[in-house]
Amino acid sequence: MEKFNLSTSRLNALIKHLMTRGIVYAPHKNGEVSFSFDEVRDPGKVILNYNRTLQSIKKYFLPPREQLLSFSLKSGSLSKVEPENPLRIFLGVHSYDMQAVLRLDYNFSQGNPELNYLKRRQNSLFIGVSFEPDTYHFSRSVGIMVEEFDGFDLFLDKHSSGYTLYVVTQAGEELLSGFDHLEEAPDRPATHREFRNKIKYNFNRLSEVFDHAWDSSVWEEIAQRCVGCGTCNLVCPTCYCFDVEDDVNLSLADGSRYRSWDGCMLNSFAKVAGGENFRADLSDRQRHRVYRKFKYITDVTGEPWCVGCGRCTAYCTAGISIVETVNRLCEEYEQTVLRKPLAKQDWVL
Amino acid sequence: MKSDQIKPNKPKIAFFDFTSCEGCQLNKLNLENELPDILRHVELVEFREAMDDKADYYDIAFIEGSLSTPSCINRIHDIRRRSNILVALGACATIGGINSMKNLQPIETVRETVYGEEKYRFPTLPAIPVSAVVKVDYEIRGCPMSIPEFLRVLKALLMGKAPNLPDSAVCVECKLRENECLYDRGIVCLGPVTVGGCEAICPSFGQFCTGCRGLVPNPNKDAMLDILTQHGLSLEDAQKRFLLFNSYNIESKSIT
């Protein structure tokens, strides 16, 4: 794989170069302590050294709210709103968020393909950046290393005196054409990053743990601390549930159909006609949420659907931690099913 | 006039105020751009703030304010009897609102404090939401009530549909707007347990949620008190946060 040296001082020049190729989105400061992906207008405002953005880049492919149709009740006609797909370059994406996009690609291409999502996904190029894991990151525990290149076209690995720019795909190489004076980077030892496994078992054993977790008391215990605000769903990069609603304008003759993000932690999510709510209790909703990340889809694809970004935990005002939840289930599994702790080599990578 | 603009038997709508600042009703007079369209679809038959007319029957009655005197109770029964659909407007009508803070003290003490020697001329009751006395078909929450939500409910009713009103927390709308969480700035907020639909307007401008839209269904109040106290409020201050708008809910279900 080709790799180049990129000094921190040339970063802005690279961003300017990218801006001549397409619309560039990158992390910016949002508020006092938070970050979000926004369109780059001033390369100087881009922040590549960030812990996590409030929302992942999912928002560009599955917008929080989008118009699907417009309709006329008088003529009974409707017209679909076609999403636009200009060339978009996502700069400064962490590996777990890239992996989340690849998981959504799977979800939205199965069965009836989700055309709006897939259309927006076309013409997207991704430039990864390494990160220093903080308290909440645990992507390594779900098999995603900081330097995971899968999905990226280019990757920026930060080291003490700048970046190593890896060219991962042909598209990535083409993106660099015209950006001169790049010098080949020497082989250097991989940057050491302190990133412990935080989940007790290797992720490929978790499906087994979840086979025995349905009746655990853990669900009731976390439900006692949970207020059901839905934040964990709405910041999750692999949550994709949505609700669809029609709205008419004041003429009462024309209107639009909208889709917006929904979440299984919300009270009315599982409410059906007749008023029945088949997951009325917060404990049932918490269980469903965590099973969606570690069991249901995982049993089909072999991969955890949690990418270890830590958002659900970092943004939970009640301090409910998904890592703690999973570890509690692992411990219960040891005590009630295995009746002895697993030998250490079984779970330490 | 085009034929589709002639609507015989337009629904009769009316607005009524009880114990309130009347801000929710005034809000509607601010709908200058929409009023001509609205009036194409409805016949406004009673609206004390805007006209003198009275009517005997209402297809839709909009009620602002909480009920806080014996005469309020008689009047709301009378309106309900003469209305097909009754919609409560704003915090006072839907959850009791700020008025219901008076319920935290003995009613005689409140009466004496407010009216002094004249108190015998002013009978008073604890302030309660409209739904505590009569059947309320739909509720438009907020202090003041949200105009977009009012329009959504009105349009749905005119189309003969049940309005789709949110019951999820303000947090949902903060997340959809990608607002920085106020808790991350060290500010405590009632957003996690307050019904959204306001587009998270207060947190979007850096102001914590005071809970004016009422608590979500089956609120986990103990967990919310834990959140507030873990983020620096004393238990007493945390309870006061709830009581500002939600005294009726809290008092009548006694969690404090």
- Spatial gap, N to C terminus of chain B: 60 Å
Number of helices of chain B: 10
User: Any idea what the shape of chain B is?
Assistant: globular
Q: How helix-rich are the residues of chain A, as a percent range?
A: 25-40%
What does this structure look like?
The complex is a heterodimer of chains A (349) and B (256). Chain A has helices at residues 11-19, 58-61, 95-109, 115-121, 170-176, 206-211, 218-225, 231-234, 282-296, 298-301, 311-314, 322-338, 344-347, and strands at residues 3-6, 23-30, 34-39, 65-72, 77-80, 88-93, 124-129, 154-159, 162-167, 183-184, 242-248, 254-261. With 349 residues, chain A is an alpha+beta fold. In chain A, strand 11 and strand 12 (254-261) form a beta hairpin. Chain B is of the alpha/beta class and 256 residues long. Helix content of chain B is 36%, strand content 11%. A 5-stranded parallel beta sheet of chain B has the order 2-1-3-4-5, sandwiched between helices. The longest helix of chain B is centred in the C-terminal third of the chain and has 18 residues, at 235-252. The A-B interface holds A 30-34, 36, 54-55, 59, 64-65, 74, 223-231, 234-235, 245, 247-248, 250-253, 260-261, 263, 266-268, 280, 282, 315, 317-319 and B 4, 34, 37-38, 41, 151-152, 155, 158-159, 164, 167-169, 171-172, 175-181, 183-185, 191-193, 216-220, 222-224, 226-227, 230-231.
